[in-house]
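$ ./design --mode recover --in tokens.txt
reading tokens...
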């Protein structure tokens, strides 16, 4: 959370410090990033032409056509399918995908605890809905699939509590701490002269502070060149303890500092210096190899296939073109004379004088079926590399009689491959995101007062998205198989039922499926219902026995005891003399 927001959301303070040390570190991080840039640029060229910011000149020509190297868009479409599938499967705006709980399962049985947690969940989901989170997270998933790293910068907002801004490859640098957690984010971007003046010079009280503004920017402002672009650097990094007064907790002594500066200029002053309590960005990575900072992506693995596909499509088009419009030969006698190879055209030759018309220089008969099969194989490899076949299984299936159970089993098998990626995204993206949303909502006084039972209790987040449930479906299948096996055994060996705790099995199964805790009754309520049912059964049995006794008495009272029969013999009454 920014304590001092550079967007004039609070009282500004005079910037302090020298920008040379910040610029030196940013330059060092940028040099380390250089080894990744060529790889990222190729991915941009062949997969996402509109993504990536690598040169200042490129930022000035953002509307320029960039997809000149793409002939077959299978890779681009696969990334879009993967991003949409990740969004709907992990963070769908149409259904709940997270749930708050406690470490103590018995506490979750309390009505006031469940009610409060359910209300907090609705508030946090509403905050995310009103912000630009879902628009931003789609971009994040696409960046992850293509480049392997996708920073998401967050800021406090008076209108929507929290706002987000995703970054693309080439415009940012990152660094890790000793634990491998990203704690530094820098970015290079451009601002217009008018944006710089409005953001950093004009203070909330109406005064102007030109500290950190270069003479060139001042000159453009005075000349009314308001739309000229100026390169800006923004670096967020931890503050060293030697640079902080641990007894104070103002913006200049926060654990993280935020510095804005002009990339050029003759002075050594920064445009702005602020602070954050926590790191204000989430840096998810698809996969990180030992010693690397930036992530590895499916786009890097599939880049060879994508480039091969473009070459194959190009060669196929050339083969068809030569088959339809082959190179021609003609006699020298036709040179300079009217001739045509167009449909319906006429070329005059004299056969009596040995005249000869046009003929193909060579015959091209490409084996198009073989070429198409090879191209299809490459396209399928690309789709598998981006998990597009998983997220679009029903669309790509040629079978119309496939059962829902078969689809479910196939999805579970493929989703197991995404397990490590989902776990990393939970740790590096969703966990800190929900922590910040909860904290921002708490500071904005949007949350209801918690019940006394939650005093000092640590809350936990449980993910109940489609992908999270699919990952846990293996455990649900295990419960189903165990209960099914027990049911078969009970038919032959009834004592087997004594081993089954049906209440615990039901609770675990419902939790794995991501159902709300409100779906199942409290254990005390279940016990009361069972006792009431048992009492009702006892009363019904007693009533049945009483009714049976009354029926027996009625039968006896209506029995003829005057005539000899079995009953009179039983009562010891003989025939009357």
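writing sequence...
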């Amino acid at each position: 959370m920014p304590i001092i927001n550079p967007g004039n959301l609070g009282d500004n303070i005079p910037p302090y410090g020298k920008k040379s040390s910040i610029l030196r570190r940013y330059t060092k991080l940028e040099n380390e990033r250089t080894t990744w840039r060529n790889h990222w640029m190729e991915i941009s060229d062949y997969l996402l032409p509109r993504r990536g910011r690598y040169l200042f000149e490129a930022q000035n020509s953002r509307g320029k056509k960039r997809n000149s190297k793409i002939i077959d868009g299978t890779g681009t479409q696969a990334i879009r399918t993967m991003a949409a599938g990740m969004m709907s499967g992990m963070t769908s705006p149409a259904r709940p995908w997270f749930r708050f709980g406690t470490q103590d399962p018995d506490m979750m049985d309390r009505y006031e605890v469940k009610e409060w947690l359910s209300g907090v969940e609705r508030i946090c989901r509403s905050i995310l809905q009103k912000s630009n989170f879902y628009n931003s997270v789609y971009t994040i998933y696409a960046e992850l699939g293509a480049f392997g790293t996708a920073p998401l910068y967050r800021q406090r907002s008076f209108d929507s509590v929290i706002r987000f801004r995703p970054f693309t490859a080439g415009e940012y640098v990152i660094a890790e701490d000793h634990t491998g957690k990203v704690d530094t984010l820098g970015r290079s971007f451009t601002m217009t002269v008018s944006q710089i003046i409005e953001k950093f010079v004009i203070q909330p009280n109406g005064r102007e502070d030109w500290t950190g503004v270069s003479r060139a920017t001042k000159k453009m402002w005075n000349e009314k060149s308001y739309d000229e672009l100026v390169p800006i650097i923004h670096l967020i990094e931890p503050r060293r303890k030697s640079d902080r007064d641990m007894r104070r907790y103002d913006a200049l002594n926060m654990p993280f500092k935020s510095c804005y500066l002009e990339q050029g200029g003759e002075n050594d002053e920064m445009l702005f210096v602020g602070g954050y309590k926590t790191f204000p960005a989430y840096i998810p990575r698809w996969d990180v190899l030992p010693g690397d900072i930036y992530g590895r992506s499916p786009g890097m693995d599939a880049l060879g296939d994508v480039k091969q596909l473009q070459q194959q499509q190009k060669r196929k088009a050339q083969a068809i073109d030569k088959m339809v419009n082959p190179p021609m030969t003609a006699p020298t006698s036709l040179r300079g004379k009217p001739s045509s190879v167009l449909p319906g055209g006429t070329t005059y030759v004299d056969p009596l004088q040995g005249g000869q018309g046009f003929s193909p220089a060579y015959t091209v008969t490409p084996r198009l079926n073989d070429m198409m099969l090879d191209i299809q194989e490459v396209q399928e490899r690309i789709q598998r590399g981006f998990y597009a076949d998983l997220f679009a299984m029903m669309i790509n299936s040629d079978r119309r009689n496939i059962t829902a159970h078969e689809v479910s089993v196939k999805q579970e098998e493929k989703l197991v491959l995404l397990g490590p990626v989902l776990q990393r995204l939970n740790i590096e993206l969703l966990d800190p995101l929900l922590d910040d949303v909860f904290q921002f909502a708490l500071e904005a006084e949007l949350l209801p007062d918690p019940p006394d039972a939650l005093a000092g209790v640590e809350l936990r987040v449980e993910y109940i998205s489609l992908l999270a449930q699919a990952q846990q479906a293996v455990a649900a299948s295990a419960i189903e198989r165990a209960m099914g096996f027990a049911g078969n055994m009970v038919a032959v060996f009834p004592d087997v039922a004594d081993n089954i705790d049906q209440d615990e099995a039901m609770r675990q199964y419902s939790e794995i499926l991501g159902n709300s805790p409100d779906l199942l009754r409290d254990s005390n309520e279940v016990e009361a219902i069972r006792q009431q049912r048992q009492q009702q059964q006892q009363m019904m049995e007693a009533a049945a026995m009483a009714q049976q006794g009354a029926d027996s008495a009625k039968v006896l009272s209506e029995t003829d005891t005057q005539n000899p029969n079995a009953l009179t013999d039983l009562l010891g009454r003989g025939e009357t003399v």
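exit 0
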